[in-house]
Amino acid sequence: MKNALGNIMQQAQKMQEDVKKAQEELGLMQVLGESGGGLVTIVMTGKREARKVTIDDSLLGDDRDMLEDLIAAAINDAVNKVGKLKKEKMADVTAGIPLPPGFQLPF
After folding, report:
1. 16 and 76 Cβ atoms separated by less than 8 Å
2. Could you write out the three-class secondary structure of 5-62?
3. What is the distance between the alpha carbons of residues 91 and 6, in angstroms, rounded to a whole number?
4. Cα Rg of the chain (Å, integer)
5. CA distances (Å), origin 62, targets 19, 39, 40, 57, 59
6. Adjacency order of strands within the sheet including 50-55
7. CA distance 36 to 56
8. First-residue to last-residue Cα distance in the chain
9. pTM for this predicted structure
10. DSSP state for residue 71 in the 8-state scheme
11. Which terminus has fewer CB within 10 Å in the chain: N or C?
12. Distance (Å) of CA 99 to CA 45, 63, 96
């Protein structure tokens, strides 16, 4: 029993180290969110920080509402891609560790 508890503690410590490493890697990654067929693009880090916004010149006319909608859509696309990237990365970290169904790590 004592050996089993030691193994669990070692697994938990390794997972904690792996999670920290994965978080650092995610912070360095970038995703490209886009809308309007690429007319608006957002470069976002894994920390959900916007790094660059690009707006095609054809959108800089009179239709402000459409431009605002496209920017919001591009941001949402980037945020969703970061979320998917984090989920995949954390699945790699927790692979092989028996977590209860529905257990969510705090990320």
Report:
1. no
2. HHHHHHHHHHHHHHHHHHHHHHHHCEEEEEEHHHCEEEEEECCCCEEEEEECHHHCCC
3. 24
4. 20
5. 47, 16, 16, 12, 8
6. 30-35, 40-45, 50-55
7. 10
8. 32
9. 0.69
10. H
11. N
12. 28, 50, 9
- Tokens 């028996």, residue located: 98
DSSP code, position 78: H
Instruction: For 62-81, write each residue's pLDDT tens digit.
Output: 788 999 999 999 999 999 99
CA 23, 26, 27, 28 dihedral sign is positive
Cβ pair 44, 28 in contact under 8 A:
no
Location of structure tokens 């980037």:
78
> 4-33: per-residue pLDDT in tens?
777 777 877 888 888 888 888 888 899 999
Cross-strand pairs, 55: 40
Question: In sequence order, which residues have a C-beta less than 8 Å from that of residue 18 and are 6 or more positions away?
Answer: 93
* Tokens of residue 31, six digits: 């995703």
User: What's the pLDDT at 107?
Assistant: 45
